[in-house]
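Extended Data, panel c. Modelled sequence:
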Amino acid sequence: MSNAALTEDDNVIEYLAAHEKKSMLRFITCGSVDDGKSTLIGRLLYDTKLLYDDQLAALESDTKKHGTQGEKIDFALLVDGLAAEREQGITIDVAYRFFSTEQRKFIVADTPGHEQYTRNMATGASTADLAVILIDARKGMLTQTRRHSYIASLLGIRHIVVAINKMDLADYSQDVFDNIETAYREFAAPLGFQTINCIPLSALEGDNILTKSTKTPWHRGAALLPYLETIDTSADQSDAPFRLPVQWVNRPNLDFRGFSGTIASGTVKPGDDIVVLPSAKRSKVTRVVTMDGDLDEAGIDQAVTLTLEDEIDISRGDIICAGRSPAEQTDQFAAHLLWMAEDKLFPGRQYLLKTANRIVPVTITDLKHKINVNTLEHMSGKTLELNEVGYCNFNLSHPIAFDAYKDNRRTGSFVLIDKRSNATIGAGMIDFSLRRADNVHWQNLDVNKTARATAKHQRPCVLWFTGLSGSGKSTVANLVEKRLHDLGRHTYTLDGDNVRHGLNKDLGFTDADRVENIRRVGETAKLMADAGLIVCVSFISPFQSERRMARDLLEEGEFIECYISTPLEVCEQRDVKGLYAKARRGEIKNFTGIDSPYEAPTAAEIDVDTSDISAADAADMIVKHLRDKGYLGA
């Protein structure tokens, strides 16, 4: 490598020490499809002479096979490593590259331009200090330019370089550059960026990359690399108080007990006061231990083990905070959410929320509005679709420690995980705790669920009848309640049709409304079980996730799923209410089994097909199950 090449007289140790002390800038390149992001990074690597001879030879060979620039070297191939990327000439995954100059070290993330891969762009932006947003000089600002700018702002990036690329194809026109710069600054004004620097360049030709180009004498600012070498972003993270999410309790022997993790923000040194959340226990730091020995002080991104003055209980998932500036704790908050899944978001559906240090079940209780990335206006909506951004209220099953995202990107961010597939489906930025969470507490009641059930000589439970319309759910549920009533047991039935006349009369039959319908019914059934009742719930409840949510609301053994597995053709032949016929004619939309899906249970406690046995026999089978499992008492 020719950059800072060493001679025999160079002091290698001093050189390496100086290299370690260089500041680091993390930045991303983003923008619309084919604006030249990968070409720009490839040009930076090429012009800074950070490529080995074998890399150059491979680049020349790949250019002949996959190049899109004729006889010229296709610099994008240095970054686009996936076969699909080379075949299509696009970026799909996030590609990270490291390079260094005499002034600074850099980690650059080349992010995709396709709307389909916006979630990958958000991944790259989440750790970046600066964004280089490329705009094709021939096309001007596009939807992805606006979307990526908004996401960069949302994810806390405060420094923007607008690289107006392919100026060689626009005859290096100042008017073209000025028009795009004016339009971008007008759009970005509300986004809160600290700096916006616009640079005309040609990544392919190398204009305004390392040095100022003679082809743009009207450009008074610096070239791209000199600007990146000098921009100061250190203030963006230096003021955040100390946070250490505990990843491991380090106990190699009886004489040592420390708490290990990577510092998320701030600094720590021996003697510092700390507070541990959620326990709120306090102590002082006695040592900051690393593999290379103890440190006098450690800062952000360093992996350390802390020992404390006092023997206090700390577990993985706790957060060690600065004693004078602890994080907040809440189980309800408002946050911006970028939806990353093909399946829609439905308020009321339960997901998993993963923060820097723990995973808890969460429900989105309210989608307050969506954001139009072109105009930044707020829009109403019931769901979020792929790549949409919304502002939502969240309700967690357990409190978490957090900071507002604007104050701390590490402890103010989270991802949502689908409980069934374990796929990451959303990325969120916490705004603030909902203050009502501080004012709502569980009331201790002397008469509890056990006392109520004992007085009724039964164990409370919820019999959840699910199946297609016409399967016989309500008929079987009604017969079960009659049998239990004859036995002197205390029951109640929640039926889909009846509930929609009252509790849920404001809901329709879209997927979003079905989710909310079941959420409300699940909460109601939980209260009835808490009253010591045996509750029969008869709902189509077509989605596994909502039935799982209802199950999770109850204690172990209290939820009994009764799958009425009567086949669709039998249900349609019965068609007591004439609904299937109307759905087939298109008179009813979103009808389960016709144009809306039904996700059958895979491990129901009871499976009954009323085309094989009568409803009366099915009811007897269910009552016998309750008696055998001890729900009916003596």
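The first helix runs from residue 12 to 20. This feature is highlighted in the accompanying rendering.
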